[in-house]
Predict the structure of 2-C-methyl-D-erythritol 2,4-cyclodiphosphate synthase.
Amino acid sequence: MRIGQGYDAHRFESGKRLLLGGVEIKHDQGLKAHSDGDVLIHALCDALLGAAGMGDIGRHFPDSASEYAGIDSRRLLQRVVELIQDAGLRVGNVDLTAVAQRPKLAPYIDTMQTRLASDLQVEPARVNVKATTTEGMGFTGRGEGIAAYAVALLEEGSV
Protein backbone atom coordinates (compact mmCIF):
# COMPACT_ATOMS: atom_id res chain seq x y z
CA MET A 1 0.00 0.00 0.00
CA ARG A 2 1.06 3.55 -0.72
CA ILE A 3 -0.55 6.63 0.84
CA GLY A 4 -0.50 10.21 -0.41
CA GLN A 5 -2.09 13.47 0.67
CA GLY A 6 -3.01 16.57 -1.27
CA TYR A 7 -4.16 20.13 -0.65
CA ASP A 8 -5.30 22.96 -2.89
CA ALA A 9 -6.97 26.35 -2.49
CA HIS A 10 -8.22 29.01 -4.87
CA ARG A 11 -9.82 32.38 -4.39
CA PHE A 12 -13.24 33.28 -5.76
CA GLU A 13 -13.52 35.31 -8.97
CA SER A 14 -16.61 36.83 -10.55
CA GLY A 15 -17.64 35.80 -14.03
CA LYS A 16 -16.57 32.16 -13.70
CA ARG A 17 -18.52 28.99 -13.10
CA LEU A 18 -17.79 26.97 -9.98
CA LEU A 19 -16.68 23.37 -10.45
CA LEU A 20 -15.95 20.99 -7.58
CA GLY A 21 -15.40 17.27 -7.87
CA GLY A 22 -16.28 17.48 -11.55
CA VAL A 23 -19.71 18.96 -10.79
CA GLU A 24 -20.94 22.45 -11.62
CA ILE A 25 -22.13 24.14 -8.43
CA LYS A 26 -24.71 26.93 -8.51
CA HIS A 27 -22.94 29.99 -7.14
CA ASP A 28 -22.40 33.63 -8.06
CA GLN A 29 -18.62 33.16 -8.45
CA GLY A 30 -16.14 30.59 -9.66
CA LEU A 31 -12.53 29.97 -8.67
CA LYS A 32 -9.57 31.84 -10.13
CA ALA A 33 -7.14 29.41 -11.74
CA HIS A 34 -5.17 28.57 -14.87
CA SER A 35 -7.38 25.50 -15.37
CA ASP A 36 -11.07 25.27 -14.45
CA GLY A 37 -10.10 25.73 -10.77
CA ASP A 38 -11.57 22.48 -9.41
CA VAL A 39 -9.72 22.46 -6.07
CA LEU A 40 -11.18 19.10 -5.05
CA ILE A 41 -9.79 17.35 -8.12
CA HIS A 42 -6.48 19.21 -7.84
CA ALA A 43 -6.04 18.02 -4.25
CA LEU A 44 -6.98 14.50 -5.35
CA CYS A 45 -4.42 14.54 -8.18
CA ASP A 46 -1.73 15.63 -5.73
CA ALA A 47 -2.69 12.85 -3.30
CA LEU A 48 -2.56 10.21 -6.06
CA LEU A 49 0.72 11.49 -7.48
CA GLY A 50 2.19 11.70 -3.97
CA ALA A 51 1.23 8.11 -3.19
CA ALA A 52 2.85 7.01 -6.44
CA GLY A 53 6.01 9.04 -5.73
CA MET A 54 5.45 11.09 -8.89
CA GLY A 55 5.63 14.66 -7.62
CA ASP A 56 2.64 16.94 -7.85
CA ILE A 57 0.08 18.31 -10.28
CA GLY A 58 2.22 21.35 -11.13
CA ARG A 59 5.07 19.10 -12.26
CA HIS A 60 2.85 17.23 -14.70
CA PHE A 61 0.50 20.05 -15.76
CA PRO A 62 2.34 23.37 -15.21
CA ASP A 63 0.30 26.56 -15.16
CA SER A 64 2.89 28.05 -17.51
CA ALA A 65 1.77 25.65 -20.29
CA SER A 66 -0.89 27.13 -22.54
CA GLU A 67 -2.42 23.71 -23.33
CA TYR A 68 -3.75 23.54 -19.77
CA ALA A 69 -5.41 26.97 -19.80
CA GLY A 70 -9.05 26.45 -18.87
CA ILE A 71 -8.71 22.65 -19.04
CA ASP A 72 -11.37 20.44 -17.47
CA SER A 73 -9.75 19.08 -14.31
CA ARG A 74 -11.44 15.71 -14.89
CA ARG A 75 -9.13 15.32 -17.91
CA LEU A 76 -6.15 15.95 -15.63
CA LEU A 77 -7.44 13.36 -13.15
CA GLN A 78 -7.94 10.81 -15.92
CA ARG A 79 -4.35 11.38 -17.06
CA VAL A 80 -3.07 10.95 -13.47
CA VAL A 81 -4.96 7.65 -13.26
CA GLU A 82 -3.23 6.52 -16.48
CA LEU A 83 0.16 7.45 -15.00
CA ILE A 84 -0.39 5.48 -11.81
CA GLN A 85 -1.74 2.50 -13.75
CA ASP A 86 1.32 2.60 -16.02
CA ALA A 87 3.39 2.38 -12.83
CA GLY A 88 1.58 -0.83 -11.85
CA LEU A 89 -0.63 0.81 -9.23
CA ARG A 90 -4.39 1.07 -8.74
CA VAL A 91 -6.62 3.19 -6.54
CA GLY A 92 -7.60 1.50 -3.28
CA ASN A 93 -9.69 4.37 -1.94
CA VAL A 94 -9.73 8.15 -1.60
CA ASP A 95 -11.07 10.50 1.07
CA LEU A 96 -11.73 14.14 0.13
CA THR A 97 -12.79 17.21 2.10
CA ALA A 98 -13.94 20.50 0.57
CA VAL A 99 -13.67 23.50 2.90
CA ALA A 100 -16.12 26.28 2.05
CA GLN A 101 -18.28 28.63 4.05
CA ARG A 102 -20.42 29.03 0.98
CA PRO A 103 -22.00 27.68 -1.14
CA LYS A 104 -23.55 24.70 0.64
CA LEU A 105 -22.13 21.58 -1.00
CA ALA A 106 -24.21 18.78 0.57
CA PRO A 107 -26.67 18.59 -2.37
CA TYR A 108 -23.77 17.86 -4.77
CA ILE A 109 -21.79 15.27 -2.79
CA ASP A 110 -23.39 12.13 -4.29
CA THR A 111 -22.86 13.35 -7.85
CA MET A 112 -19.23 14.23 -7.06
CA GLN A 113 -18.69 10.75 -5.64
CA THR A 114 -20.15 9.07 -8.73
CA ARG A 115 -18.17 11.16 -11.22
CA LEU A 116 -14.89 10.83 -9.37
CA ALA A 117 -15.36 7.07 -9.01
CA SER A 118 -15.86 6.84 -12.75
CA ASP A 119 -12.68 8.82 -13.45
CA LEU A 120 -10.74 6.76 -10.90
CA GLN A 121 -12.12 3.51 -12.36
CA VAL A 122 -13.37 2.30 -8.97
CA GLU A 123 -16.76 1.68 -7.43
CA PRO A 124 -18.30 4.71 -5.68
CA ALA A 125 -17.88 3.11 -2.25
CA ARG A 126 -14.12 3.68 -2.62
CA VAL A 127 -14.61 7.44 -2.95
CA ASN A 128 -15.59 9.47 0.12
CA VAL A 129 -16.43 13.15 -0.33
CA LYS A 130 -17.13 15.49 2.59
CA ALA A 131 -17.72 19.21 2.97
CA THR A 132 -17.14 21.42 5.97
CA THR A 133 -16.98 25.08 6.94
CA THR A 134 -14.50 26.86 9.16
CA GLU A 135 -17.17 28.54 11.28
CA GLY A 136 -16.35 31.92 9.76
CA MET A 137 -12.59 31.72 10.39
CA GLY A 138 -9.82 32.25 7.83
CA PHE A 139 -10.08 32.93 4.10
CA THR A 140 -12.67 30.20 3.54
CA GLY A 141 -14.72 31.42 6.48
CA ARG A 142 -14.71 34.95 5.11
CA GLY A 143 -16.00 33.58 1.79
CA GLU A 144 -12.84 34.51 -0.12
CA GLY A 145 -12.29 31.08 -1.64
CA ILE A 146 -12.41 27.31 -1.25
CA ALA A 147 -9.80 24.81 -0.06
CA ALA A 148 -9.68 21.03 -0.37
CA TYR A 149 -7.82 18.15 1.27
CA ALA A 150 -7.37 14.66 -0.13
CA VAL A 151 -5.89 11.35 1.00
CA ALA A 152 -5.36 8.48 -1.41
CA LEU A 153 -4.44 4.86 -0.93
CA LEU A 154 -2.83 3.09 -3.89
CA GLU A 155 -2.27 -0.64 -4.13
CA GLU A 156 0.08 -2.59 -6.35
CA GLY A 157 -1.51 -4.38 -9.28
CA SER A 158 -3.61 -3.55 -12.31
CA VAL A 159 -7.26 -2.57 -12.41
